[in-house]
Amino acid sequence: MAAVRLFPAIDLKDGRCVRLKQGDMAQATVYSDDPAAQARDFEALGFDYLHVVDLDGAFAGKPVNAAAVEAIRAATRFPVQLGGGIRDMKTVEGWLLKGVTRVIIGTAAVRDPEFVKTAAKAFPGRVAVGIDARDGWVAVEGWAETSTLHAHELAKRFEDAGVAAIVYTNIARDGMLSGIDWDGTIALADQVAIPVVASGGLASMDDVRELISPRAEKLEGAITGKALYDGRLDPRQALAAIKAARRP
Question: From the candidates 54, 56, 132, 207, which is the catalytic residue?
């Protein structure tokens, strides 16, 4: 099968590494006061790509935890994909110049799709779209608002735009350790040619086995957060299973 990737997640709130439940900022569990040290730990475990979200930035509409992101970049060598508060070209350019490998555009993908298309053309392979859905409908503004746009409709808007990936989150699963919405994620991946990254609810090796199963062959990978922090997922076991699945 084609190579898939497991992305460890660092969600930033007030400069600290946290996890939320269903995107609720009032339900934040702090796991580390030093996101850069957490990133180093993930790198030492053998992960090869980091997923970072500026939660405060998602609500503010502009970067808020820039210092923490820059500290992560300075402390590690592996690539970083970053989302949260990225809503104009200046911000896209700023993060890419600072060494972020690719940016994830969420709210602006709904509000200003032409901006996303322009950014994707200007920076090939370095712009992803974040689609966060509640009952199939896209949520924006840090998930505080639900739009009238369906996730599949939004994904299709960017089919020929040069977008590097779609990061798809079922909000009801996020932070709940209830397992990824594989049926919904794979259904979305079947609708578009853009690689899809599964997010929200990864709970155990069962999810890793789903990720490397034949039905998930269109997926680029999956994001894991709380299961790693709570020790429910053994990172070495997970990475070994993924590595073994890459063999011809």
Answer: 132
Give the active site residue among 11, 54, 174, 181.
11
Q: How many residues does the chain have?
A: 248
Distance CA 84, CA 86 (A): 6
Tens place of pLDDT for every residue, the chain, 248 residues? 468 999 999 999 999 999 887 777 888 899 999 999 999 999 999 999 999 999 999 999 999 999 999 999 999 999 999 999 999 999 999 999 999 999 999 999 999 999 999 999 999 999 999 999 998 899 888 777 888 899 999 999 999 999 999 999 998 887 777 899 999 999 999 999 999 999 999 999 999 999 999 999 999 999 999 999 999 999 999 999 999 997 55
pTM surpassing 0.90? yes
Determine the residue type at 21.
K
Q: Which residue, 200, 228, 198, is CA-closest to 22?
A: 200
132 catalytic residue (yes or no) = yes
**11 is an active site residue:** yes
